[in-house]
Structures
1.
Amino acid sequence: MYGLALLEPDDLHQAGTRTSPAPHGRGQNAVIESFWSRMQVELLDRRRWRTRLELANAIFEYLGIFHNRQQRHSAIGWLTPVEFEKRLPSTVA
């Protein structure tokens, strides 16, 4: 995602993407800023990590197990992602 910021809007359009109509600034990234803030408090600030591998494993576990499966999200009506997906109509590919 960060690499896209280096491209011009015309380059992004040619690649089939759309840019945000919102002005650049803090409000544009509110969701990701909220996520990083929460992860900082719930995981990163709670202990010191001895190695990068230990930290990487903790982040993977936080994302894959807690955040994506158990954490309630305001953007989906304070449901967990698993609860939200169960409410969606099933589709056959």
2.
Amino acid sequence: MVRPSSSHYAPVGGHASPAVGRRPSPFSSRRVHPALLVLFLVAAALFLVPHYSLSDTVDGSTAEQNAQASTPTRWGRIGELVGALGVLRDAQPAAVAPKPRWPECLRRRQLSREDHKHRVAFLFMVHTAETLEGARQTVETLWDEDDLFVVHADKKMNETVVQQYRQSMTVCGNVEFVSDDDRVDVRWGKFSEVEAEIALVKHALRSDVPWSKTVLLDGTSWPRLNAKKRQTWLSLWDSALENNGTGPAPVPVCTPECGRPVNKRGWGVTCGDCRRGPARCADDECKTLDLTPGGAHVRKDHQWFLLTRDMAEYAVAGPDFDEWAAYFTRVHASSEHYFVTLQYAQYPTLGKLPPPVYVDWARPCKTHPSTNGAHPCELGIRDLDSIRRGDGLFARKIRMNETALKTALINGEEAAVDLSRPLDSAAFLD
């Protein structure tokens, strides 16, 4: 099990024994002398050095304002320290707060505000300590103050590990975790996968970050492109959307032969993916289905979606949300159907859009242990050329320790990352 670095753990502080008899004077106790010296040095430093808040930006105007504002408050801060002397002699040693892996939320922008046209909500589904660490590495590689990052940790995960990562990763305000109350115990192939995705989207919609697009990822996802090329790719995706797609939309899973057997019980047995759910064609030409809201068709695609903000709002809060949610609770592997179906229910004439995530299904790879179903291939350095020839913002199924591939994809276009050790945000700061 991958654990965060030891800096996450807070040593348990010892408690001082209750005082017996008369309390010694702070000036006669040897224990106080070092504290007085430390307080004196801190007071001197605060007096001589201007004070800056960690939340301040690093532009010159803000720094100058802080420097000017700090002068009249130096003596006030020293007075507060001196006033604390009386409290110090009664205080008991406290547990040392854990040091976050990202030491400070320093303002960093990979792109200028003018170049950052598309602000993105990056959503991460993780289910193990390894995929959570993988997500952390990806978040730190992507991190920009203008984007949003939201993590859903499976309800089954070790709570101590989740809380340590939550404390570490949320130092920067635009990295957030889905609340414990909204976390889902995800079961593969069940509607719980969709519930976790819906929780991520709803969390992102409640955020103050004005993102325009959202993409679903996991802890094995890694960027194919640098920051500028991601913006270019998103602009091309926008153009495809405005032109109603680049080709035919994903084919509906139900076709004319999937009508209900006349005067018979049961479902058609030659209907492929249509058998995953209860709906069947409502007419001979299969223009509508019989159990879906408005008779809309069900479609199938990768679950790793890219949505505009209005698509996301429709999928989790649209007029037919409750009906669709109730329907998909009866569909196997509904995560491969839900968001793409809602996307085309909202835009029935929309064609195919470029896929946001590169996944290799072409080669014969291992099967899923619980179903013997197909499983996407895990990617390594040997797949570099294929990934670069592919499409999408990200490549998926890259393990955390695939250092060579991750470094090659970064390829000097973004700040280099030493993936052999826990990442440090300072490595990305200009």
3.
Amino acid sequence: MYWRVGFAWSRSCALELGRNKSFSLGLSGSEEHLSLYGYIIAYPLQEYGGIMSALGFDSWWRKTLYITGGALLAAAAYLLHELLVIRKEQELDSEDAIILHQFARPKTGVPSLSPFCLKIETYLRMADLPYQNYFDGKLSPQGKMPWISYNKEQVCGTEFIIDFLEEKLGVNLDSSLSPQEKAISRAIIKMVEEHFYWTIAYCQWVDNVEETQKMLATNGPLSDLLRWILSQGTGSIVKREMYGHGIGRFSKDEVYSLMEKDMRTLATFLGNKKYLMGPRLSTVDAAVFGHLAQAMWTLPGTRPEQLIKGEFINLAMYCERIRRKFWPEWFVDVDDLYYDGLSEEPDSPSQLPDLGLYSRSGSFQEQESTLSHHDTPSPDSDVTGRSLFDSDMDTECSEMEQLK
């Protein structure tokens, strides 16, 4: 192995041979010595004419050129990225606009695989607040999703988002509830978000992860690999957090038993009411819908789908009622309202379109539909024969105006 010796002012090289040496210049027999302060260093060369040799003392200008060029390219790439980010933020951060940051739309037409993203977007539609989606996948500074930005303010956590919007914009879906009803509403929300959520997450990302993986929206030649990485990574996180929560320490059958108890509680409390707290919508409906919709439309053939479309059919009708009222662009097969044990994925699922800036006021009209009635229950009515089409739309619209 060959070695090259040089002089440096720092100890960034391989081997120090000496320090602060004085030596003769050797010019015309002169005995004058020159003192230099630094490090005499040595570094290996693989071979003459090799890479290390090319970067040696005799080609120092070439090394400088490589380093400078690389630094300039890195700086240019960074500046380009920042300019694109600033441009995107300028497009979105218009004054008094709610920017909703959430995960990308799944491939199957469901708005979101996240109960909390679906909850807050449904809440915005229930409150008739215009907003714009930003599917960047970037978590909030607290590591949460979803989160919103409004006039340069960032808020994460669905509960804090709703509190923020109520304070800033004066909306309140719970204004008609009594203090006792508000207490019941909060208890239901916490049961759903702190307990029932984990059973749904277990079914999505642990027990049924292969099917959930197919729903992830990724593009490019490595999309299959990326979907696998995302699903496996999410599954690992879910299992770890479930174990820390405590529910992950139980067996699969025990987890599903807890899920069934939660769904039975919701079905019993809902009964034959239109919404959970009565004839009017409230915040609890957005939270419960965001979670039950996962069982309805993202878990074909699983235990939660069997429960919601079978024994707890009133929950299925409840979800369908809200979907038709606030998600006109979200199409589902009406034959899919009942579980028959033969659930199959559509041959060519359509992705939910991004409507961009959304406002419910004047954006769509409830359409009357005439369907033939048979002796068996119609998909457009629940087991009591009640219509799902919200024939009292005008009355509810006037109620929504009063809430503001």
4.
Amino acid sequence: MISYLSQRENDVEQINSICLRLFDSWCETRNVMPLAYLMHCWPMSDSGPAAIRRLGETMHELRRHHADLLDTDAFQTLCQMADLIDDLAGRPIESVKPIAVGRGRGQCG
């Protein structure tokens, strides 16, 4: 993870890393059903709340309806991702507030 990113950005980066690992694993093993679920919502179009929520809901449905297709490692990885998504849901997106030129620096909030 990159130290200068916000915690939210680090979490999003970690979620994308998890998705990439799952994608590679499921392609390699030709595990088509979980792969179809993942490709339905990833890569994310952006890292906003709606995209994160869609990923979380889709992966929850995969765990709920097709747990028999997941090995222990994939299931635990999906649970780890769910924890990160839950953390993000409670953390607002930081945004820079625009200010007039010459009046100081923008603030996050």
